[in-house]
Amino acid sequence: MTAPSPTQPEIGEGVRDLLRLASLGGIERVPAQVERVRGCTRPIQLTGYSATLDVDTGEPLHVFTTLDEPTGRMLVPCGNRRASRCPSCSRLYAADTFQLIRAGICGGKGIPESVRSHPRVFVTLTPPSFGPVHGELTTPAGKRLGCRCGERHTNDDTRLGTPLSPETYDYAGAVLWNAHASALWARFTTYLRRELAAALGLTPKELRAVLRVSFAKVAEYQKRGLVHFHAVIRLDGPDGSDKHPPASASLDVLTQAVLDARGRVRLTVDSDALGERELCWGKEIDVREIAAFGKGAPLTDKAVAGYLAKYVTKGAEAIVGNLDRPVRCPSCRGTGTQADADCPACEGTGKNAPLTHPNMTRHARQMVRTAWDLGALPELAHLNLRKWAHMLGFRGHFSTKSRRYSTTLGALRDVRRAWRTAQTRAQLGFADRDETTLVVESSWAFLGTGYTPGEELLAATVREQRALALQLKHEGEASQ
């Protein structure tokens, strides 16, 4: 079998491979497999079989085997959430996240619609300043003042978010803040519960008996390379979304508790090389009520869900270009040595990729290098900064939720899998049979990843068609 091409093949190479595939027979199966994985950028190749059997007699009612496929294998989607790695799979991930977040705001997917009447706020928590950067200043009234450098930057100006004085910018503090951002969020949720308890005249233990704090949050990179969090925070009864919180736990009480909890969060990092650093949230915070209904509402439930889902497929690519993979060597884990000798895979550098990229700004390069250098400090070894240097030190998940906020991504995938199974059984003529009379036996083995050059041409066409259909859909919705 021709080895998969990791990059876009030349047209001539792709056409030759398509002719080769056509000569194998059953050529219609090749585009069908590519369409089935929605043009996934780097699908997983499997070999094996799946057989549907009669549970009583053991008689095979239907058998699928990759031996009957022209290419001798089956393709399944990679499932990567990053848009920079796989636009197709990332769109599906974003769609699932949209459903998950929206269900927690307005009901559905097992969550009662009564959550619309619970106190709900949309919160944005930002990092502090580590030095002045290029960006637009505004007055409290919203009047634009321009940048500190004296210019007015356009939205595509590469200087936006970069330090005015790189020599004095606190790069170590910025990287450490990213590395501890998730811990700061965890402390924020703890203090939020304590502030709510104090506002209601209860102890934290008594609070758990009368209400529950539910949330879903998403991380987003600012242009200066620091993450900030957008979150939906909702108050429920003690058992979750089925019950209302007490009347005293109002929207105003929740809003004030968020503001007070943000101010209380402190986290100290002690390092022999850097000294003692105190990390906290930035001064800028946004807390807004989520409106359930009504056109022209400042913040609707659908808008919030769409806004959060948009960011779960992104990483630091907007800051570091296409550096979307770890830069440390996987063989030596960034140490540069194996068995007391230089690692042969990275030749002792500890890196499997350079710390730079052609379209990275100087600021982004310095953030990556700082994360790499801090990763060598023994007292910071637990942060795994070399592993996360391509993420500018951020080690957390891009989307998280509390246990009772809404459904789960796994549950959504189970529903989709069950629907596909039902569709397949209908196509095979098993729709009327009781599921308990059927059993599926299968065996699969990993073969590789990617496409052949000819398949890549087909996949590029599928991706282009799907992107065009999505664009037309959005244009249609915008015109309504």
UniProtKB/TrEMBL annotation:
InterPro entries: HSP_DnaJ_Cys-rich_dom_sf, RepSA. This is Replication initiation protein. It comes from the Bacteria.
